[in-house]
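FAQ

Q: What does a record look like?
A: Structure on top, sequence underneath. For example:
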């Protein structure tokens, strides 16, 4: 009986170690792409102008959010697709660093400029809701892959 209990405990331990996570593990060695600073600033301005036109406050730039938005763009470029992989980890780290109570993000690809990316987000109900949400801070990262495609990540928090 004692041997059986050890066997069950061992099986449970191995199953726990081998269990799948919903989010992929973060890749540790990802090359950093160069930021398209002008596109970033333009997109941030467009989003803030939109918010102001709705009677909302402009979002303040966050260096912490910018760091994580940049890392996520580099990650997306490294795997060649847009996604929200590891978002809960990013959100948790941002929350712990700036005491944020809520974090959200928008991502995009296949737009050639800030205005088109904004319009794409505006035409998507979930992305629009995020841009128009109850947030106080943001950062926009725009990076280009080796094929010349822009990747966009905007992180919001309050």
């Amino acid at each position: 009986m004692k041997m059986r209990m050890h066997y069950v405990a061992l099986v449970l331990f191995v199953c726990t170690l081998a269990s799948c996570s919903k989010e992929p593990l973060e890749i540790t060695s990802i090359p950093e792409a160069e930021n398209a600073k002008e596109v970033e600033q333009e997109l941030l301005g467009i989003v803030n102008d939109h918010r102001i036109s709705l009677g909302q406050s402009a979002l303040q730039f966050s260096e912490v959010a910018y760091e994580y938005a940049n890392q996520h763009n580099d990650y997306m470029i490294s795997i060649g697709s847009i996604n929200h992989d590891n978002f809960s980890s990013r959100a948790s780290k941002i929350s712990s660093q700036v005491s944020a109570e809520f974090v959200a993000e928008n991502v995009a690809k296949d737009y050639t400029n800030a205005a088109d990316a904004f319009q794409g987000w505006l035409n998507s109900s979930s992305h629009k809701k995020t841009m128009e949400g109850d947030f106080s801070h943001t950062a926009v990262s725009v990076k280009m892959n080796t094929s010349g495609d822009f990747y966009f990540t905007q992180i919001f928090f309050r």
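Q: Is there anything notable about this one?
A: Residues 111 and 117 are 6 Å apart (CA to CA).
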